Amino acid sequence: MPAPPVIADLVERFEQQGDAYKSGQYNEAQLRKEFVDPMFKALGWDMENISGYAEAYKDVIHEDAIKIGGATKAPDYCFRIGGTRKFFLEAKKPSVDIKTDAHPAYQLRRYAWSAKLPLSILTDFEEFAVYDCRVEPRLSDKASVARILYLNFREYVSQWDDIAKIFEREAILKGSFDKFAESAKAKRGTAEVDDAFLSEIENWRSDLARNLALRNPKLSQRDLNFSVQRTIDRIVFLRICEDRRIEVYGRLQALLNGEHTYRRLYQLFREADERYNSGLFYFRKERDRVEPPDELTPELEVDDAVLKRIIRRLYYPDSPYEFSVLPADILGQVYEQFLGKVIRLTEGHQARVEDKPEVKKAGGVYYTPTYIVDYVVKNTVGKLLENKTPKQAAKFRIVDPACGSGSFLIGAYQYLLAWHRDWYVDHDPKKWTTGRNPALYRGIGGEWKLTTAERKRILLQNIYGVDIDAQAVETTKLSLLLKVLEG
């Protein structure tokens, strides 16, 4: 396929004015508008949603780069097919040396690895680099690590066929992107984000369990399991909220300074109780709640070193995770595996982590693949919602009587969120942005989104679950709470 004339024009313009573009005065926003957008428009992508697709099915999601703690907190572009992420693109101003500067590559790879995307692009138009993002990113990596394609802008015209075979929208629909990703898979071992995060929280559980058993000799086995999981859940929740800009970035990280770490951490938990009013943080009796408040964990004794090791692994540069893009279903699958083990206390009150008897008997934990969840939800909840209004949908009750870690409930809730948003957008969206309880607001780039209050209303009215495993129920509640705050 020959390069379209617009590509030759872009290359010629950059050649002629390259010094001005690389001066440092030319910024990323200008680069995106004048070079990246036209380049990917030539590859068949609807960069401005001219087709008028519903929010859930836009080809391209544009994110404004927000600097927090020295790191960019959103990929510049997310390219999608049918609402499913295919790859990220991170744009840099031309004064950045993409070939040798390791930081932009590490940043991009953290995003894509956390989102479980196989490939993603780093470009300043002068340079175009494609990375295999299944390789776990490490701060010590050089810019060349996991890079599987590198082109200079002068090669775009001659190499256009190779670029188009991978990243053209039509080619992706025909499967060439997936074939290339598979053929280009790094020879070195790759650590998928779910496996890596599972290993991470299993280490936290072991460390916390041993320390809590040592410092709190009166803890029963049941209380020990509750305390460990609830502490990890709360820390993970607050950290994800930071990356999603719901909490102030770095509040947990600040606990690395000074002593009495758990006392200060508990104060953050108390503040979260007042802010989120959820079962995850519940320390004072409330009139309408049946379950008793948590009077156990506020009195725990925990060594500073144990908590600081956990917190340190949640932040750049020690953390490879970018929680703003970590999919909810991945978190659910991780926890499903995590809940396959239980903490036992020995006669000497030492903690041991073992497989649950039922898991050992079954030969391991099995989770429901996402595509099966999507199929079942579409053909049940989807059929139920046909030709309905939000007022009618509010009367539906979706129940999973053996919810486990919540795969089907999360899928059903996500479907409801997308359906409500699209219904409001199709029925005079501005009407739903006003009043005492607005349902919509415009997000970054003008994208319509459900308000947090509306997301919470849908959850409380429509989603119900039961399970014999109390820890599994807690995990489902955590995942659903994160879904409420995802927008």
Helix content: 40-55%
Distance from N terminus to C terminus (CA atoms, Å) equals: 40 Å
Structural class: alpha+beta
- Sheet having the most strands: 6 strands, mixed
DSSP strand tally: 14
Q: Examine the secondary-structure arrangement and name the CATH architecture of the largest domain.
A: Alpha-Beta Complex
Question: What is the compact description of this entry?
Answer:
The protein has 487 residues and is of the alpha+beta class. Helices cover 45% and strands 12% of the residues. It folds into three domains: 5-183, tt1808, chain A, CATH 3.90.1570.30; 193-361; 368-485, no CATH class.
What does the secondary structure layout of this molecule look like, with pairings?
Blueprint: H1 5-21, H2 28-41, E1 60-62, E2 67-68, E3 71-72, E4 77-81, E5 84-91, H3 102-114, E6 119-123, E7 127-132, E8 147-152, H4 160-167, H5 169-173, H6 176-183, H7 193-215, H8 221-243, H9 261-276, H10 304-312, H11 328-338, E9 341-345, E10 351-355, H12 357-362, H13 370-378, H14 381-385, H15 390-393, E11 398-400, H16 407-426, E12 440-442, E13 448-450, H17 452-462, E14 463-465, H18 470-485
Parallel strand pairs: 5-6, 11-14
Antiparallel strand pairs: 1-4, 2-3, 4-5, 6-7, 7-8, 9-10, 12-13
Helix pairs in contact: 7-8, 7-11, 8-18, 11-18, 13-16, 16-18, 17-18
How would you describe what is shown here?
This protein is α+β, with helices and mostly antiparallel strands. It folds into 3 domains: 5-183, Alpha-Beta Complex (tt1808, chain A), CATH 3.90.1570; 193-361; 368-485, no CATH class. Helix content is 45%, strand content 12%. The chain has 18 helices and 14 strands. It has helices spanning 5-21, 28-41, 102-114, 160-167, 169-173, 176-183, 193-215, 221-243, 261-276, 304-312, 328-338, 357-362, 370-378, 381-385, 390-393, 407-426, 452-462, 470-485, and strands at 60-62, 67-68, 71-72, 77-81, 84-91, 119-123, 127-132, 147-152, 341-345, 351-355, 398-400, 440-442, 448-450, 463-465. The strands form 5 sheets. A 6-stranded mixed sheet has the order 1-4-5-6-7-8. It has a two-stranded antiparallel sheet with strand order 2-3. The chain has a two-stranded antiparallel sheet with strand order 9-10. A hairpin with a 3-residue loop joins strand 6 and strand 7. The chain starts with a helix and ends with a helix.
